[in-house]
């Protein structure tokens, strides 16, 4: 599988990152098999979080077996110094390893949170200490939030090494500031920050619970994913061709093999095909029904 | 309004910043929005459809009143001065013009264009023979021919437009593919089906009813289809 430099971390990540939340819905034996499958495809970057059910515990055995082959990303939703230290130790304990390669502030949403993590007693201070102690190697941030907030974070965190954010043809077709993740990507590349894409496989929100009760949804994702081999490949190719480092799989374990296949076969996507996907999503989403043309 | 990537890609290598521009066949104003976003000094958005003109004024013109003039005019005889614009765009225009009208429109656009003017023509190659959308367009054309004596749509190959514009004195600059394949979404299918129905309904029942039934059948059968290509041609007037 193709690899790309993860910013200036010195690590070359595979173009697909294994989002290990998928392990949460598997028994241990199935989880072990999935990690083997992912490694068989050559994936070398894994991402986990303590909030992914018991994914840390289920990843542990195979992670320890193949520790040298896996670049391990983990995250915390804590925003303060003490909480971050505590959660980092808990993750190390649950994973059963001594070090984490990339530790990320998880799910930044509000300006106040940015103030909190950058304060003297904030999460970043704990991460910097852990980095100095050799417990973690790199510091990152993840967000589904406002692109302007992420740009502010880049400005305010000088030692930020990776960013994880959403990108797909639906988002790319919107010009407003709330969807301008392209600006985030451009800025990250200028600054030498590695980029991980999430929501690459999101088709849209689930139908209302009146039409489809939550218990009847066929996938564990909180959005409705694309789920045919063709759509999956198109979405992977689109995301991977946006000058990003790596694309994280959709969380449902039933989709992982299809995404692995797409990632293994990735060979670029020309611009006309990229525009076709953006146009298709834009018209599906359009409130203007009278358009005859593209 | 969101500027489609087709428009962004077509304008990317044109000197729009500071230019006086004309969007020929403004539709709902997509290219006008793109020209403004790229820094056009002034955009004349011309359409002969009063509803489209209103839409462009509401969506684009209101926020850029000093830079946009929406003209409800026939493209074969516009009120613009000779040699008055520096960039002309025709995004998805040619396919709604029958051959004779196309030639008249190109004559008028050439009159308005200043020496050195850039022309961008974006349109669709004829659809592949096995495309289901081709059947819908055929029914749309049949209904329109019976109703008005002219086709609704004519898909000109890029090579045809290159030769035609060469005859009007335009020098070919470049061609690029905007969409491959072209995503004809459920919205597009519905819009073309509605246009076909509007032509078929006033026809005598013996003619209209089979066409309406075929339109309904095709809408159900197609749903959506990605097929064919959309191209962008760029030309320059000597000078």
What does this structure look like?
The complex is a heterodimer of chains A (294) and B (239). Chain A is of the alpha/beta class. Chain A has a single domain (3-284), classed as NADP-dependent oxidoreductase domain (TIM Barrel, Alpha-Beta Barrel), CATH 3.20.20. Chain A has 11 helices and 12 strands. In chain A, strands 3-4-5-6-7-8-9-12 form an 8-stranded parallel beta barrel, surrounded by 5 helices. In chain A, helix 1 crosses helix 2 and helix 6 runs parallel beside helix 8 (181-191). The longest helix of chain A is centred in the N-terminal third of the chain and has 15 residues, at 81-95. By secondary structure, chain B is an alpha/beta fold. Chain B has helices at 5-11, 30-37, 50-61, 99-112, 132-148, 158-167, 186-200, 205-222, and strands at 20-24, 42-47, 68-72, 85-91, 113-124, 171-179, 182-184, 225-227, 230-236. In chain B, strands 3-2-1-4-5-9-6 form a 7-stranded mixed beta sheet, with helices on both faces. The longest helix of chain B is centred in the last third of the chain and has 18 residues, at 205-222. Chain B is globular, with a radius of gyration of 18 Å. The model of chain B has no long low-confidence stretch (mean pLDDT 95). The interface between A and B is medium-sized, with 27 and 31 residues.
Q: Helices, strands, pairings?
A:
The complex is a heterodimer of chains A (294) and B (239).
Chain A: E1 3-5, E2 12-14, E3 16-19, H1 28-40, E4 45-47, H2 55-65, E5 71-76, H3 81-95, E6 100-105, H4 111-118, H5 123-132, E7 136-142, H6 147-156, E8 162-166, H7 169-172, H8 181-191, E9 194-198, E10 202-204, E11 224-225, H9 229-240, E12 246-248, H10 253-265, H11 271-284
Parallel strand pairs in A: 3-4, 3-12, 4-5, 5-6, 6-7, 7-8, 8-9, 9-12
Antiparallel strand pairs in A: 1-2, 10-11
Chain B: H1 5-11, E1 20-24, H2 30-37, E2 42-47, H3 50-61, E3 68-72, E4 85-91, H4 99-112, E5 113-124, H5 132-148, H6 158-167, E6 171-179, E7 182-184, H7 186-200, H8 205-222, E8 225-227, E9 230-236
Parallel strand pairs in B: 1-2, 1-4, 2-3, 4-5
Antiparallel strand pairs in B: 5-9, 6-9, 7-8
């Amino acid at each position: 599988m193709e690899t790309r430099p993860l910013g200036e971390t010195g690590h070359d990540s595979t173009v697909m990152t294994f989002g290990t939340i998928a392990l949460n819905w598997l028994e241990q034996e199935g989880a072990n098999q999935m990690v083997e499958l992912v490694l068989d495809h050559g994936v070398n970057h894994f991402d986990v979080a303590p909030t992914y059910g018991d994914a840390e515990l289920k990843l542990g055995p195979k992670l320890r077996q193949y520790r040298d082959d896996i670049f391990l990303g983990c995250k915390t939703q804590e925003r303060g110094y003490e909480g971050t230290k505590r959660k980092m130790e808990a993750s190390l304990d649950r994973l059963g390893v001594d070090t984490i390669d990339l530790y990320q502030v998880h799910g930044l949403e509000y300006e106040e949170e940015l103030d909190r993590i950058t304060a003297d007693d904030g999460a970043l201070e704990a991460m910097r200490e852990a980095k100095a102690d050799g417990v973690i190697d790199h510091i990152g941030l993840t967000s589904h939030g406002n692109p302007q907030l992420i740009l502010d974070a880049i400005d305010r965190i000088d030692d930020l090494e990776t960013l994880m954010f959403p990108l797909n043809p639906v988002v790319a077709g919107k010009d407003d500031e709330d969807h301008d993740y392209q600006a985030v990507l451009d800025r990250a590349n200028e600054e030498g920050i590695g980029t991980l894409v999430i929501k690459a496989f999101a088709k849209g929100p689930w139908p209302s619970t009146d039409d489809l009760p939550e218990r009847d949804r066929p996938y564990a994702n909180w959005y409705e994913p694309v789920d045919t081999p063709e759509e999956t490949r198109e979405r992977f190719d689109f995301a991977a061709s946006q000058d990003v480092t790596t694309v994280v799989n959709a969380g449902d374990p039933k989709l992982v093999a299809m995404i692995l296949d797409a990632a293994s076969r990735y060979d670029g996507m020309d611009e006309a095909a990229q525009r076709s996907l953006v146009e298709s999503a834009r018209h599906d989403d359009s409130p203007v029904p009278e358009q005859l043309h593209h | 309004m969101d500027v489609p990537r087709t428009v962004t890609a077509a304008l990317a290598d044109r000197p729009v910043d500071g230019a006086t521009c004309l969007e020929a066949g403004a539709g709902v104003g997509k290219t006008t929005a793109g020209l403004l976003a790229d820094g056009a000094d002034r955009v004349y958005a011309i359409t002969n459809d009063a509803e489209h003109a209103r839409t462009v004024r509401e969506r684009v013109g209101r926020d850029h009143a000093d830079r946009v003039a929406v003209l409800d005019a026939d493209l074969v005889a516009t009120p613009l001065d000779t040699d008055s614009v520096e960039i002309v765009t025709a995004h998805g225009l040619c396919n709604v013009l029958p051959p004779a009208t196309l030639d008249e429109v190109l004559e008028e656009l050439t009159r308005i264009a200043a020496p050195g003017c850039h022309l961008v023509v974006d349109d669709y190659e004829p659809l592949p023979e096995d495309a289901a959308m081709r059947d819908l367009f055929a029914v749309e054309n049949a209904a329109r021919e019976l109703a008005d004596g002219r086709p609704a749509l004519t898909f000109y190959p890029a090579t045809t437009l290159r030769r035609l514009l060469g005859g009007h004195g335009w020098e070919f600059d470049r061609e690029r593919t905007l969409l491959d394949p072209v995503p004809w979404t459920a919205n597009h299918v519905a819009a073309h089906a509605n246009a076909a129905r509007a032509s078929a309904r006033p026809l005598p029942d013996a003619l209209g009813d089979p066409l309406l039934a075929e339109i309904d059948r095709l809408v159900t059968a197609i749903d959506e289809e990605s097929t064919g290509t959309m191209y962008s041609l760029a030309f320059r007037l000597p000078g």
